[in-house]
Amino acid sequence: MYLNAIYFDTFLYEYPLLYTDRHNQQVIHSIDHVAQSVQNYGQLSNYSTYNFVSVLGILRATVHSTKRHAKEIANTMNLLRLATRNTLADDFNNELKSTLE
Asked: 55 and 96 in one domain?
């Protein structure tokens, strides 16, 4: 564990010396937090951002226009919110509910 932390620290120290600011992205900064995350939550396979990225991909697929992307995403989010609320209502058709699940 300590050896990995040394590698991370060395990489983060040397990266700006080897590459320009244009290459110094958020992903590189995030590496700084990997060791602490592993210490707090265990091995990386114990948690993932896959669900978040998956939802972003679904939202992105709903955008079809070349303008007003934010409006389209807001409309999609509103439809999802309303659909979820309707399926939780007591009078929602149980057969349809089981099909959707």
From this structure: yes
